[in-house]
Amino acid sequence: MSSSPTGIDPLHIPPVLVNLGIACHYCLKEKTAPNPLLQCACRHVWYCNTECRKAEWPTHTYLCDVYQTAEEECGRKLLDAYWSIPKDRDTLVVTNFGMLEEFISNTERVVTKTLEDLLGRPLVFQERQVVGWEPHCLACGRTDALFRIEAELAKRNTRPAVLKPCPYCNLSFYCCESHWRTAKSKHENEPSPYSRDNLTQCEMNKRCLEDLRCSQIISAGSAVGEFTWRPERIFASWSSVRDIDWANYEYGLYKAFKAYNSMGKRFMDAMLRAASENLSMPLTILWSLEVLNGDDDAWTKKDVLDIHVLGADELEISSIEVFEEIVHRLPLVKTLVLTFIGPNLDKFTGPEPLITELKTCSDCIHNERSIAFNSYPMTYHQYMDDRDSTKPDLAIAFNSGCSKSDIESWKTTYRALSRKRVPSLFTASNEVEAQRESVLFHRSGIKFHPELHPRHNPWGSLILKIDSKTISRFSENNGWISGGWQ
Ligand SMILES: [Zn+2]
Ligand SMILES: [Zn+2]
Ligand SMILES: [Zn+2]
Ligand SMILES: [Zn+2]
Ligand SMILES: [Zn+2]
Hints:
The protein contains 16 helices and 14 strands.
């Protein structure tokens, strides 16, 4: 790919590759044979050349100055923690990956804290990314920084090992030939437990790369997820979304984005995955309404369909037009009432409740069908307290993270939902999170709908995201159902 209809250099890629050290930290240009990248003095970021380094120096100088000191200060502690992870005695291959993941999270915390103490201020987002995304060897889990610390503490004069990327995907790493031989077969031949299509980790990495490059082209340099496609056609009647999948959207996508068709099938596949990132929300709503209502299709014929989106935040707000897909698939519904409720909404819709109407497509206007939009900047139980009789057709929380943050607040919310018998659904971005959340729901006495136990969401996003805290995990927006009930 050398050119694109938008004229944006497809080699410009977003921060994930930058953070893995395979793209320039300043201009984002990818590492290639003619552009091998120079390592900065701090050894944690890379640049095309001294010009790119100079251009970024005014902002990077602070982190750069303290990184080496930080490594010296916490080096011993990190190394001791690393060696306490169980390994094969001869090969040093890690045998307990759970402990390795814990170590990775702890390392990030320790290094961040040390850097913040040295700087006397919290790290800004860009700086936190540099700390949180170090490449790890697939077999032993070590990073370049650990090898350096090890060499320095042992006062060895030999050059410390440097991680090399897998030659096929460039997104997984190994420290030496023998560790590559150990990890290679699993990485290249075994289906990853995080794949729906039996892809190997190497193939999933390659897909991530394609998605990153595609999103650079279609959303003008912004991150994955900022491309929003609202299909503009109205169905003649409701038809089930249980027997179909994302392939059903292919034809419409090709038609809507003719300008990109010349980029080829692989690119259009990546574009469909990009579209699924946000379309996953309305489709998950339709799918869960269908599952929860079973054979009773009265909900498809209501004049007013009332949906509550809990913990709504930037993602929901920034892609709000995709929710029109709900009315496009439900031609008998005259008004969709879409109510977003979440404590962070004040940043987008102001501190007071907002009651308005969304701009719809001309077909919807012509057929006098509308979307009423309400935004309440508060938690759901605060919202419900004032409206005791309110019962929407569905209350849904996308990637709520209710097992990670605001645990108590979420608990009050899902307990209230269950008590009031509100049809509800919670999604998560991976299996671990979904299982954790389902345990919390269980403990609150919630009885799941038989089909809505932790499971893959057929309408989860197709965009895979590499998990920075592990060396093998991926996540997908709404990829998992944590639980659903009524
Ligand atoms: Zn550069
Ligand atoms: Zn630096
Ligand atoms: Zn290794
Ligand atoms: Zn690979
Ligand atoms: Zn419309």
